[in-house]
Amino acid sequence: MVSAQDKSLVRKTFESERMDLDAFATAFYAKFFAACPEVRPLFSRDMTRQEEKLLAILTHVAEALDDSARLDAILRQQGEKHRKRDVSDAHFMGFITSFTGALSDTLGPDWSTEAELAWTRFLTFVAGKMNFAVQR
Ligand code: HEM
């Protein structure tokens, strides 16, 4: 379950005037590959398509925040796409800190500790629904 307050903070991130999704996606993967260099070879050299896919799924997820059946279906399908990827706790932690770090860089003064905590809880929920074997 995602609390109403966390949903609202997640939504606010997308609605910020400072939000620049393309810059965010590029910054996110740069941080993720710096934190977890061993995953770099699993991705294409040209990250354009991957960045587009990440932004597309984030948009779907944001649109489905108030429809838990739809959100579950989206995340189950994403989980299926990661089933054969060996996603460890460390990778997932690297994913979260890179994600919130890239949001912080992108949003500057529009980012806050509350937003970071809400996104961390939200991404942990997402990981659970994607069936990653992460500690919750
Ligand atoms: C909340 C967490 C995550 C989300 C929302 C997410 C999202 C995505 C999306 C949208 C794709 C594209 C799938 C497609 O082809 O349609 C993808 C692919 C992929 N993801 Fe994730 N991901 C997450 C976590 C991770 C983590 C922690 C790893 C760590 C290894 C990872 C590794 C990969 C790999 C290797 C691919 C395939 C890349 C390729 O085929 O070029 N993902 N992910």
UniProtKB/TrEMBL annotation:
Alphabetical list of SUPFAM superfamilies matching this protein: Globin-like
Domain of life: Bacteria
Heme recorded as keyword: yes
PROSITE patterns: GLOBIN
UniProt keyword list: Heme, Iron, Metal-binding, Oxygen transport, Transport
Domain Globin, residue spans: 1-135
Keyword Metal-binding: yes
Alphabetized PANTHER family for the sequence: FLAVOHEMOPROTEIN (PTHR43396)
Family to which this protein belongs: Belongs to the globin family.
Name of protein: Globin
Lineage: Bacteria, Pseudomonadati, Pseudomonadota, Alphaproteobacteria, Rhodobacterales
